[in-house]
């Protein structure tokens, strides 16, 4: 009876935290499609400029913002029993993120031109356009770094509905402003700057909304001395390295091996992975809840809840993934046609989509176990284990490639096995730390 009540309470906590974030992310996917439609009607140069800059900005934010997880993990432990430390963590997070954002803006103004010229080979008027677009959107990075602090405060306080509302209003504003600038104010290739202006204004509007919503918390934090900045930076190092190695190096190397199989395999895999990405949106939101709730449950000595939590988030993620996958597989012709109009790519993507979805599901185990363990402060163990496992997997892939026996199916199987093996290690370690048995 006690266990059943705990399960229901956890499901309520997890869903009240995650569902607004899931809706917000699905809404963001829709907005990105609309924005791509606006850009796609300007010029080829506009498409290239926004793709290059937005991809770089996304990577920078993904790496620079990952340290905010430390705030989630540490502040959730003291939220209820030590308000002074809680606001110390919040102020430290805000100062660190703002400083990083300012450094990124300065770096963009100093080095973006030479990067676009030397690395991407962009010259002439296109170079001016992409640089100006990059300068504009660099201020969005600064705003986003500050917003990370605010949204994570809302997450820790379980007020994620505010994130959904702010994101919805900001997105509508972004589309409206971008459409007006592109169609009625700017001309030629300058129109792409309208997209940057619309994006930047909307993100600062969201920042203003968060200031209003969190004005009391910000005033409280302003009166407290910030003493956690260095501790936050040190604790962020394993998380940042994990993000770089797992999200960049490992992924790039895997894509490189798939590319050696041929253009048809790579293009079909790329399209299929985009569809899988839609199915995986709930996973990251449920994993985000782990960074808050694990700390909260352990700080309150709720061992049973702490043990049940990752099991429940994993189960809920699989449920969402299954439903979304079935819908997209049933409508795979429509889904894939929406992403590409190249017949050969469509045909190959349709043939492998179900396979990619099945093997990608093992990532759910990996991410839930990883976030659970990181939430207990075991980021260094997570990093070390991931490096060893990924290195072994890559070595096997390279050996099979050398033997000319590598195939897309084999790569997917090895990745699934890799995720499964790591998740077993992580879950064993997690449940070993939370030792009280579930009754």
TrEMBL record:
User: Which PANTHER family does the annotation name?
Assistant: FMN_FAD EXPORTER YEEO-RELATED, MULTIDRUG RESISTANCE PROTEIN NORM-RELATED
Coiled-coil region(s) at which residues? none
Q: Does the keyword Membrane apply?
A: yes
Q: Which domain of life is it from?
A: Bacteria
For the keyword Transcription regulation, the answer is no
Q: What does this protein do?
A: Multidrug efflux pump.
Which keywords does this chain's UniProt record carry?
Membrane, Transmembrane, Transmembrane helix, Transport
Taxonomy of origin reads: Bacteria, Bacillati, Bacillota, Clostridia, Peptostreptococcales
Q: Which family does it belong to?
A: Belongs to the multi antimicrobial extrusion (MATE) (TC 2.A.66.1) family.
Instruction: List residues traversing the bilayer.
Output: 21-44, 56-73, 94-115, 135-154, 163-186, 192-213, 233-260, 266-287, 308-330, 350-369, 381-400, 406-427
> Which Pfam families does the record associate with it?
MatE (PF01554)
Its name, as the record gives it, is Probable multidrug resistance protein NorM
Q: Name any GO cellular component annotation.
A: plasma membrane
A GO molecular function assigned to this protein is:
xenobiotic transmembrane transporter activity
């Amino acid at each position: 009876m006690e266990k059943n009540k705990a399960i229901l309470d956890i499901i309520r906590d997890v869903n009240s935290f995650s569902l607004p974030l899931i809706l917000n992310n699905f809404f963001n996917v829709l907005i990105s499609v609309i924005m791509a439609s606006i850009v796609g009607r300007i010029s080829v140069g506009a498409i290239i400029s926004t793709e290059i800059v937005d991809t770089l900005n996304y990577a920078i934010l993904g790496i620079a913002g990952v340290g905010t997880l430390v705030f989630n993990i540490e502040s959730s432990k003291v939220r209820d029993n030590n308000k002074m430390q809680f606001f110390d963590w919040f102020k430290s997070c805000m100062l660190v993120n703002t400083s990083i954002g300012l450094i990124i803006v300065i770096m963009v103004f100093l080095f973006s031109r030479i990067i676009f010229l030397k690395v991407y080979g962009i010259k002439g008027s296109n170079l001016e356009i992409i640089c100006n677009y990059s300068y504009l959107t660099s201020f969005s990075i600064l705003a986003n770094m500050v917003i990370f602090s605010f949204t994570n405060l809302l997450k820790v306080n379980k007020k994620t509905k505010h994130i959904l509302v702010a994101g919805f209003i900001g997105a509508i504003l972004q589309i409206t402003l971008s459409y007006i600038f592109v169609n009625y104010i700017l001309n030629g290739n300058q129109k792409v700057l309208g997209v940057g202006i619309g994006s930047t204004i909307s993100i600062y509007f969201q920042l203003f909304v968060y200031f209003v919503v969190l004005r009391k918390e910000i005033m409280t934090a302003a009166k407290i001395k910030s003493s956690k900045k260095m501790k936050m930076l040190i604790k962020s190092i394993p998380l940042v390295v994990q993000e770089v190695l797992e999200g960049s190096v490992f992924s790039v190397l895997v894509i490189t091996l798939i590319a050696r199989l041929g253009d048809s395999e790579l293009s079909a895999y790329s399209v299929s992975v985009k569809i899988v990405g839609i199915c995986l949106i709930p996973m990251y939101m449920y994993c985000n809840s782990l960074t808050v709730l694990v700390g909260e449950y352990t700080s309150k000595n709720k061992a049973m809840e702490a043990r049940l939590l990752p099991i429940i988030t994993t189960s809920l993620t699989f449920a969402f993934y299954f439903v979304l996958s079935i819908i997209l597989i049933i409508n795979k012709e429509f889904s894939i046609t929406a992403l590409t109009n190249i017949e050969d790519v469509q045909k190959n993507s349709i043939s492998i989509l179900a396979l990619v979805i099945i093997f990608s599901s093992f990532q759910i185990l990996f991410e839930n176990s990883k976030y659970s363990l990181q939430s207990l402060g075991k980021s260094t163990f997570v990093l070390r284990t991931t490096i060893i496992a990924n290195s072994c997997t890559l070595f096997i892939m390279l050996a099979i490639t050398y033997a000319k026996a590598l195939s897309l199916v084999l790569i997917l199987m090895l990745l699934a096995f890799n995720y499964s093996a790591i998740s077993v290690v992580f879950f064993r370690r997690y449940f070993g730390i939370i030792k009280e048995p579930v009754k």
